[in-house]
């Protein structure tokens, strides 16, 4: 490469020395293989980085090339970086639920399966989102025992800091999460909306057993207040949870006794579906 520049009135011509060293074939092959790894990372977004690295490295027979490759953890980091660069830009976090716009890519899983199952509508202040894959929907419809619970630690602030989930019990006894929901509030009305949507998803299937956290079932502020201030009422509530510890021979009589409590008389709308 020849460079020409002018200083004052005198022009100068500079010719750089010729490079006499040859190219490094090992370095060329390393670059080629790293390129293959980046390509695999973007073309197979659901594949584990460990598997992609093993696939590329496993095809290299040269000891010289293997010896100069980056370490495995650095190769996995290259996979993550390649995917990050290839991913589309996500919208900024909104300040209100009504401003939330979910891009299509976030409505699907990395396997290109539907994930956003229910959205009550953009612009709605009482918006509720429910996420579930087709496979999880089948598990939900086949399970006879479900667990409903709320997680207050992992959730966007605009959804009242709670992620509500349903876990289904598998034949081997393991309980796995199959439904996730972001509710607009922690009111009893919101929970009834959520359960109504889930009932439609069950498509006629009736689980034999449903576990619900009483703290969540009592989301109504009046009931919560009563629970915190009325010791007898609070004891009645806790006694329902204690039914699990009652011997089988005494379980029915214990339940019959609890059904006469003030809690049942005053909160029948909560217990009706669970008891029937």
Description of the structure:
By secondary structure, this protein is α+β, with helices and mostly antiparallel strands. It has 3 domains: 24-86, no CATH class; 100-213, no CATH class; 220-276, no CATH class. Helix content is 44%, strand content 16%. The protein has 12 helices and 8 strands. It has helices at 25-43, 49-57, 63-68, 72-86, 134-142, 188-201, 214-217, 221-229, 231-242, 248-258, 262-266, 268-275; strands at 3-7, 10-14, 116-119, 129-131, 145-151, 163-169, 175-182, 209-212. The strands form 2 sheets. The protein has a 6-stranded mixed β-sheet with strand order 3-4-7-6-5-8. Strands 1-2 form a two-stranded antiparallel sheet. A hairpin with a 5-residue loop joins strand 6 and strand 7 (175-182). Helix 2 packs across helix 4. The protein is elongated. The protein starts with a strand and ends with a helix.
Which helices and strands occur, and which strands form pairs?
Elements: E1 3-7, E2 10-14, H1 25-43, H2 49-57, H3 63-68, H4 72-86, E3 116-119, E4 129-131, H5 134-142, E5 145-151, E6 163-169, E7 175-182, H6 188-201, E8 209-212, H7 214-217, H8 221-229, H9 231-242, H10 248-258, H11 262-266, H12 268-275
Parallel strand pairs: 5-8
Antiparallel strand pairs: 1-2, 3-4, 4-7, 5-6, 6-7
Helix pairs in contact: 1-2, 1-4, 2-4, 8-9
């Amino acid at each position: 490469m020849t460079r020409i520049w002018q200083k004052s009135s005198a022009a100068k011509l500079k010719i750089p020395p010729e490079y006499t060293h040859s190219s490094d074939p090992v370095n060329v092959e390393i670059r080629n293989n790293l390129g293959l790894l980046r390509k695999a990372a973007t073309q197979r977004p659901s594949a584990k980085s460990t598997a992609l690295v093993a696939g590329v490295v496993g095809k290299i027979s040269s000891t010289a090339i293997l010896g100069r490759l980056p370490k495995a953890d650095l190769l996995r980091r290259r996979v993550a970086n390649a995917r990050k660069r290839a991913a589309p830009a996500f919208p900024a976090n909104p300040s209100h639920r009504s401003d939330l716009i979910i891009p299509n890519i976030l409505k699907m899983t990395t396997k290109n399966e539907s994930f956003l199952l229910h959205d009550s509508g953009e612009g709605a202040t009482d918006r509720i989102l429910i996420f579930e894959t087709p496979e999880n929907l089948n598990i939900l419809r086949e399970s006879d025992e479900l667990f409903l619970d709320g997680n207050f630690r992992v959730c966007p602030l605009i959804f009242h800091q709670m992620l509500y989930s349903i876990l289904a019990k598998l034949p081997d006894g393991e309980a796995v999460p199959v439904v996730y929901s972001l509710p607009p509030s922690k009111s009893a009305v919101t929970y009834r909306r959520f359960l109504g949507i889930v009932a439609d998803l069950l498509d006629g299937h009736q689980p034999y057993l449903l576990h619900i956290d009483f703290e969540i079932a009592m989301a109504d502020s009046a009931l919560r207040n009563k629970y915190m201030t009325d010791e007898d009422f609070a004891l009645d509530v806790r006694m329902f949870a204690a039914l699990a510890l009652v011997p089988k021979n005494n379980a029915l009589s214990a339940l019959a006794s609890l059904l006469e409590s003030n809690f049942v008389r005053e909160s029948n709308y909560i217990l009706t579906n669970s008891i029937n």
